[in-house]
Amino acid sequence: MSKLYFFPSMLLLIAIAVFVAINPSPATVNFFWSAEIKTTVAILILCSVAIGAVFIALVDLARQIKVWRELRQLKAKLKTAEEELKLLRAKSSTDSKPSEQNRI
Prior knowledge:
By secondary structure, this protein is mainly alpha-helical.
């Protein structure tokens, strides 16, 4: 599955690198609270990509935690089912053996 994401992400990184390289012009960023930052378009793009990557990682982490919880619950159910099966097999093997009194 990781190979499925590797090549598209490498292509995206190359596209971002090319776009950053051809956009070195200065830019001014105005925030909501009237702060002004002067920087290059390349830095803005890289910061945007980094913030997006962090956001995606957090979303994926939440999904992964959900999968881990579900896996832990399924393992507990499997352990319970295996214990019940073991008890049923033990009970079945003792029930199928003829007792000494039935033979006489």
